[in-house]
Design goal:
By secondary structure, the chain is α+β, with helices and mostly antiparallel strands. It folds into 2 domains: about 70 residues, no CATH class; about 180 residues, no CATH class. It contains 10 helices and 5 strands, in the order H-H-H-H-H-H-H-E-E-E-H-E-E-H-H. A 5-stranded antiparallel β-sheet has the order 1-2-3-5-4. The radius of gyration is 31 Å and the shape is elongated.
Length: about 270
């Protein structure tokens, strides 16, 4: 901003001074009192001088124009925290409000959602599973990193089709072994957070969990919850990054995306 203002001042001063002296030569001293470097006092001299100094004049005017364009662009109303497809990122506050009252927030048109790109990725993932001869449920069962927590086998995995959240928030899924927890079972929020902490130490303000209603669960055979992590310390951020890397390296889907040139979408 300071640099732009300086350019604006320089460009404006140079352009205005040049034009003013061109049309008001009487403000200059007579030729006998001027050096050769000083500007002319007659129309003829002014035209000659302007021809010689045209690059400098145009430079000043261009600097002024460029600065004005930059300032005008910055003054345009912001689209907010949106992607190029127009999907707005869901704030942490909105996620937490949705977790407390899904029905009410949904009726009000609020809540996390996927971008069209991620929706396409999920369709591609479903087709990929079908082409390999297995279901999404079977893939999670076979590849998730399971941990026994209080007699219940749970797994915390990155969501393949995450909701579009504010920067710094990652979307995970907490899966439950069907032999221990029925697919349509409801798990209270306190238990969900405790199970997340079996994989990564998070404070209350760093974790938000909720289960979708049974009719909206994409893998109904396996109970699961949406987990949103927002690290507030470097230690937590590093632990989450390490957890994500470990999951990515053992995921056949992530490798398939990498080989298809979409590795960036899955963390490569």
């Amino acid at each position: 901003a300071a640099l732009g203002f300086a350019i604006l001042q320089y460009g404006a001063a140079g352009a205005v001074t040049t034009l003013y002296l061109h049309f008001h030569p009487q403000v200059l001293p007579p030729p006998s009192l001027r050096s050769d470097a000083m500007q002319p006092t007659t129309w003829r001299e002014a035209n000659v001088w302007l021809a010689k100094n045209m690059p400098a004049v145009l430079g000043s005017l261009m600097a002024l124009l460029l600065t004005l364009l930059i300032l005008a662009y910055r003054a345009l109303p912001s689209d907010g925290d949106k992607d190029s497809d127009g999907t707005e990122r869901t704030s942490w506050a909105t996620i937490c409000a949705f977790a407390k009252d899904q029905a009410g927030e949904a009726r009000a048109g609020r809540g996390p959602r996927m971008t069209p790109t991620v929706e396409m990725r999920h369709r591609r993932y479903s087709e990929w599973c079908a082409a390999r001869g297995h279901t999404e449920f079977e893939l999670v069962s076979a590849t998730a990193i399971w941990s026994n927590v209080g007699g219940v086998r749970v797994a915390l995995e990155p969501n393949i089709a995450p909701y579009h959240c504010e920067t710094g928030v990652s979307h995970w899924l907490l899966w439950y072994e069907p032999a221990d927890v029925a697919g349509g079972a409801a798990v209270d929020a306190t238990t969900l957070v405790a199970h997340v902490r079996a994989f990564v130490e998070v404070r209350d303000e760093e974790c938000c969990c909720f289960q979708s209603p049974p009719e909206r669960r994409r893998v109904p055979q396996m109970a699961h919850a949406h987990v949103f992590l927002r690290p507030r310390t470097e230690r937590t951020a590093a632990a989450i990054a390490q957890l994500r890397a470990a999951r990515r390296l053992r995921s056949p889907w992530a490798e398939a995306e990498r080989l298809s040139g979409r590795g960036e979408e899955v963390g490569f």
